[in-house]
Amino acid sequence: MDNQIQLMRERGERLRQAARTIGITHAAKAAGVPYTTLRDYMNGGEMKFSSVAALARVCGVSLDWLAYGVGTPPASSSPLGSDAPPRGGHQAVIPWLDNRDEGLRISRTWLEKTFQQDGTSLRLLTVTGDAMSPTLREDDLLIVDTSHQHVQGGGLYALAIEDAILIRRLERRLGGGLRALADNERYPAQEVSAEEASQINVIGEIVWSGGSPHG
Fold first, then answer.
1. pLDDT band, very low/low/confident/very high, at 16 (cuts 50, 70, 90)
2. Are the C-beta atoms of residues 123 and 97 closer than 8 Å to each other?
3. Nearest CA-CA partner of 143 in 59, 84, 90
4. What is the per-residue pLDDT for 84?
5. Which of 109, 116, 176, 201 is at a distance of 20 to 30 A from 85, taking alpha carbons?
6. Contact predicate 144/120, CB 8 Å
7. Contact predicate 205/154, CB 8 Å
8. What span, in angstroms and rounded, lies between the C-alpha atoms of 108 and 125?
9. Exposed/middle/buried for 170, CB within 10 Å: 0-12, 13-18, 19+?
10. Which of 197, 196, 213, 194 has its CA nearest to residue 205?
11. Helix (H, G, I), strand (E, B) or coil at 213
12. 50, 28, 162, 31: which is closest to 100 by C-alpha?
């Protein structure tokens, strides 16, 4: 049993090494593996073969190396797919909202061109639940601009509600109230009075999800 535990830990470390070459968050998204599952794998958890095969492919390593350490380890870096922010050159790091693990390393040129800012107010977040489906799906990666906490007109926002974070479309109403909308029709729209709106903790506006900025 001890040998099996050691084998899983070593496999997890190889996976961590491979995933870091393209960014752990991107590796999870590109392979179709939830971030939390990838994190469990890297910490020595039991791995599903189909997920390991997909991770080996997107990280550019052989399945033999990832599973058994046989063959050539990954290079220090590898190009990201076209659906993720490019890396290289002068880099910036967007941290997680909850400061988990490492952030997302991206090209500073892409950052400034896409958001017209230095990125200090940007944070990473993943989607939980199906309220915003089909626009946003479980474990989709989001970038939140925490400097946009005042709702003007309408937009997609991250809200802190008790111990949870919700994503909703917010529309400013006459009189100072808000209308909160989910894209999944199973969730009814909610009318929020001006008094209630003043108590809502708006984390920030969602400015990017997956492949392209929101308009």
1. confident
2. yes
3. 84
4. 54
5. 201
6. no
7. no
8. 19
9. buried
10. 213
11. strand
12. 28
- Exposure string of 3-40, with b = 16+ CB inside 10 Å and e = fewer, is eeeeebeebbebbbbbbbbbbbbbbbbbbebebebbbe
Q: How far is the C-alpha of 142 from the C-alpha of 208, rounded, in Å?
A: 6
Query: What local confidence, expressed as pLDDT, does residue 75 receive?
Result: 58
Q: Determine contact, residues 21/57, Cβ cutoff 8 Å.
A: no
Please give the pLDDT value at position 85.
Answer: 57
Q: For residues 35 and 25, is the Cβ–Cβ distance under 8 A?
A: yes
β-strand 201-209 against 212-213: which pairing, if any? antiparallel
Q: Are 205 and 189 in contact (CB under 8 A)?
A: no
Residue with tokens 């199973």: 186
Q: Rounded to 5 degrees, what angle do the CA atoms 200, 204, 208 make?
A: 140
Q: Which of 167, 160, 162, 172 is nearest to 143 (CA)?
A: 167
Distance CA 102, CA 196 (A): 35
Q: Which of 155, 152, 132, 133 is nearest to 144 (CA)?
A: 155
The token pair that represents 28 in the structure block: 């999870």
Calculate the alpha carbon distances from 16 to 39, 56, 65, 100, 190 in Å.
9, 11, 13, 15, 42
Q: Give the C-alpha separation, 82 to 30, whole Å.
A: 10
| Cα→Cα distances 11→21, 46, 120, Å | 16, 10, 35
